[in-house]
């Protein structure tokens, strides 16, 4: 693959924009930097789920369970709850491995199920994990139940503390801005891994299974192991994202890992365009930012139009969001930015 | 023994509600092989509409049974309309789209329905007016209320009615033909669009009745109730073998029973203090009649899902589902 000068300049501009972004957002308020951080977290989650749903074609409705495993692993190993304070670079791999293990435990017995049956089993698994987190406060207090775990340690690299502000020259690096750069680095790594995976032998095996499992099997692909691998890899990404979520938020509770979160991440993947990394990223960005933008625009817009508040802004925001989901899928059924192979399939269907 | 009987009665009551909701999922799935993710919200709308009618008439001098009936009669057409709109907006335009696209439109529709209900009926749970004189009968030491009897009987009647409709009428043949093969059914003169819309509408009508039953049984309606009810019912449909009408009924009843029995007994069974090897540290916890319950009734939902997962692991297409090839 050769890159032209124009492409290089384009990439450089995107990189510069991403580097400058938190400072621009910080001018509108630190809240927006936090929103950007959560958007990046959702991009990470969507990319993880994309491996399972987009590449391998396995519908997973309980993906948030792996996110929860990662988050709770971090919370338990770096908070006053058990008095443990391990550094983050130890916990993140632990969280990823635990999530991976959870993925294998879920996947091993269930992967011979057909599409929708697999969907409901994963959904049940997600709910079971959440209910356990919610109830494991008695008889022995493991997770502190619905109250959740708070005062979780922030990231700490040597003298650099991610919860405090540092000033370098005229630039103020607040906590969220530091996390933003860290997340950006992780995102870059995840994108690279995803790109390499997609073009690898494994990636092609996933696509083969998605397109026709029997044909894939007869071509010598060990479908069970390859599917399990998709589950395990997707789960590990979820676990890493969960660990970072716990550190950024400083607090975890079962409330954050409800089924709706799984559905939201799935919506990001499908809306953006399953299987296409850039589409998935776009979908995650869009569904993270649009509701927030609506939060800030719906109320003033109503006051400007009608002079008073007609509908509760929160309700209207969700109504618009639901409508957006319906309309996007109605006019772009394969997603906003579909994978080329998907697009071809769709045209064949229509012909 | 009385407790066992009581749990079975309670389980059968909730199970019948699950079964009727599950019929809605299973009919739609049978015909277009798609999960109608917004079905739970339709049921919720049914409960809400009935609540409004019943509350409005509760003060009048009409006999209570007529009032409840009026509520049901208002809920059914409202839900049927919802079901029809759902099919037209979220499913029909996407019939040839990739499989996951209608899933997203259905999720969008359920978000819309939920928040419309929030706008109309408010955020707080609504208490159904208790107008029916709920008489309680004793059966072998357990109690069964007239509402429970009514729910179980009504569900059985509806299931029998649906079976008759699907297996004994001309339109039922059209539905089964479409489920078998849309294209061939079309060649035989079946209007597939009409059949598919009809399954949505019939499912929604049944769901409306289920919503009222749920509301009168638990005495409460809330704009988020459709979510968990839908989830249970969908699990029930899958448990029985999705697409199979008898399976939905079996799955619903079974799920209700397991939930009730699990809630009633697992807490006792996993109380380690009742186990013989309670000693040392554990014995201290158990002193003075203390308990050390590992899985209490707060795990209610886990039992249902665990059973679902176990059944599917051993019978991948549900209890009554036919063995279908990988790519049907």
What does this structure look like?
The complex is a heterodimer of chains A (351) and B (328). In chain A, the strands form four sheets. Chain A has a two-stranded antiparallel sheet with strand order 1-2. In chain A, a hairpin with a 2-residue loop joins strand 6 (166-168) and strand 7 (171-173). Chain A has helices spanning 5-28, 30-55, 64-77, 88-110, 115-135, 175-199, 201-211, 213-218, 223-249, 259-272, 277-306, 313-331, 340-350; strands at residues 78-79, 84-85, 149-150, 156-157, 160-161, 166-168, 171-173, 251-252. Chain A has 351 residues and is mainly alpha-helical. Chain B is mostly helical. Chain B has a single domain (2-314), classed as ABC transporter involved in vitamin B12 uptake, BtuC. Chain B has helices at 2-32, 39-58, 64-91, 100-121, 146-168, 170-180, 182-187, 192-218, 225-240, 245-269, 281-286, 300-314, and strands at residues 126-127, 136-139, 142-145, 220-221. Chain B has a two-stranded antiparallel ribbon. Chain B has a two-stranded antiparallel ribbon with strand order 2-3. In chain B, helix 1 (2-32) packs across helix 9 (225-240), helix 2 runs parallel beside helix 4 and helix 3 runs antiparallel to helix 4 (100-121). The chains are: A mainly alpha (351), B mainly alpha (328). The interface between A and B is large, with 55 and 56 residues.
What is this structure, in a nutshell?
The complex is a heterodimer of chains A (351) and B (328). Helix content of chain A is 72%, strand content 5%. With 351 residues, chain A is mostly helical.
* CATH architecture group name of chain A: Orthogonal Bundle
- CA gyration radius of chain A, whole angstroms: 21 Å
CATH class designation of chain A: Mainly Alpha
Q: Gap between N and C termini of chain B, in Å? A: 46 Å
The arrangement of helices and strands of chain A along the chain is HHHEEHHEEEEEHHHHEHHHH
Number of strands of chain B: 4
In total, how many domains does the architecture of chain B comprise? 1
Q: The CATH topology of chain B, please? A: ABC transporter involved in vitamin B12 uptake, BtuC
> What is the helix tally of chain A?
13
| Structural class estimated from helices and strands of chain A | mainly alpha
* Overall tally of domains of chain A: 1
Task: Report the biggest beta sheet of chain B as strand number plus sense, adding barrel if it closes.
Answer: 2 strands, antiparallel
Q: What's the overall average pLDDT of chain B, rounded?
A: 87
Give me the CATH fold name of chain A.
ABC transporter involved in vitamin B12 uptake, BtuC
């Amino acid at each position: 693959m050769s890159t032209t000068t124009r492409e290089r300049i384009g990439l450089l501009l995107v990189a510069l924009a991403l580097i400058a972004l938190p400072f621009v957002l910080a001018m509108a308020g630190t809240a927006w930097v936090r929103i950007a951080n959560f958007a990046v977290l959702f991009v990470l989650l969507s990319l993880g789920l994309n491996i399972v749903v987009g590449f391998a074609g396995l519908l997973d409705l309980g993906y948030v369970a792996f996110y929860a495993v990662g988050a709770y692993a971090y919370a338990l190993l770096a908070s006053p709850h058990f008095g443990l304070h391990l550094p983050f670079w130890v916990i993140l791999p632990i969280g990823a491995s635990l999530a991976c293990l959870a993925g294998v435990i879920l996947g091993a017995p269930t992967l011979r199920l057909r599409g929708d049956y697999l969907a409901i089993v994963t959904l049940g698994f997600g709910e079971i994990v959440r209910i356990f987190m919610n109830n494991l406060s008695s008889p022995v207090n493991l997770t502190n139940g619905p109250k959740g775990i708070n005062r979780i340690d922030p990231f700490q690299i040597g003298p650099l503390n991610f919860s405090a502000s540092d000033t370098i020259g005229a630039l103020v690096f607040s906590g969220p801005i530091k996390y933003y750069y860290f997340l950006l680095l992780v995102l870059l790594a995840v994108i690279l891994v995803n790109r390499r995976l997609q073009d690898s032998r494994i990636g092609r095996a996933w696509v083969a299974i998605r397109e026709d499992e029997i044909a894939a099997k007869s071509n010598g692909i060990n479908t069970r192991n390859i599917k399990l691998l998709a589950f395990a890899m997707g789960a590990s990404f979820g676990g890493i994202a969960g660990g970072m979520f716990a550190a950024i938020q400083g607090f975890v509770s079962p409330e954050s890992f409800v089924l709706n979160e799984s559905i939201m991440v799935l919506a990001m993947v499908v809306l953006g365009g399953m299987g296409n990394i850039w589409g998935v990223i776009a979908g995650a960005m869009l569904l993270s930012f649009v509701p927030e933008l609506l939060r800030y625009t719906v109320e003033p817009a109503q006051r400007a139009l009608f002079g008073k508040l007609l509908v509760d802004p929160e309700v209207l925001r969700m109504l618009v969001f639901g409508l957006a989901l319906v309309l996007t899928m109605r006019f772009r059924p394969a997603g906003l930015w579909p994978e080329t192979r998907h697009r071809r399939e769709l045209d064949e269907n229509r012909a | 023994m009385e407790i066992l009987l009581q749990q079975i009665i309670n389980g059968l009551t909730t199970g019948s509600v699950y079964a009727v909701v599950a019929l809605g999922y299973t009919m739609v799935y049978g015909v277009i092989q798609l999960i109608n993710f917004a079905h739970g919200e339709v049921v919720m709308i049914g409960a809400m509409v009935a609540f409004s009618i019943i509350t409005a008439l509760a003060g009048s001098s009409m006999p209570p049974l007529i009032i409840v009936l009026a509520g049901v009669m208002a809920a059914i057409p409202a839900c049927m309309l919802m079901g029809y709109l759902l099919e037209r907006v979220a499913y029909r335009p996407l019939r040839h789209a990739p499989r996951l696209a209608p899933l997203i439109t259905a999720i969008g529709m359920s978000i819309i329905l939920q928040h419309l209900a929030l706008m109309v009926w408010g955020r707080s749970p609504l208490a159904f007016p208790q107008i029916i004189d709920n008489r309680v009968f004793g059966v072998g030491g357990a109690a069964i209320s007239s509402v429970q009897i009514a729910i179980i009987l009504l569900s059985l009647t509806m299931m029998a009615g649906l079976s008759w409709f699907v297996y004994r009428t001309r339109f039922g043949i059209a539905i089964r033909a479409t489920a078998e093969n849309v294209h061939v059914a079309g060649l035989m003169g079946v209007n597939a669009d009409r059949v598919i819309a009809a399954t949505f509408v019939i499912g929604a009508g049944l769901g409306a009745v289920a919503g009222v039953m749920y509301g009168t049984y638990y005495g409460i309606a809330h704009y988020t109730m459709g979510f968990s009810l839908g989830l249970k019912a969908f699990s029930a449909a899958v448990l029985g073998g999705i697409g199979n009408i008898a399976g939905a009924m079996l799955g619903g009843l079974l799920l209700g029973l397991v939930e009730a029995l699990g809630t009633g007994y697992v807490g006792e069974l996993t109380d380690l203090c009742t186990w013989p090897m309670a000693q040392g540290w554990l014995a201290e916890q158990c002193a003075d009649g203390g308990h050390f319950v590992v899985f209490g009734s707060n795990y209610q939902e886990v039992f249902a899902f665990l059973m679902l997962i176990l059944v599917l692991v051993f019978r991948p297409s549900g209890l009554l589902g036919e063995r279908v090839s990988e790519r049907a």
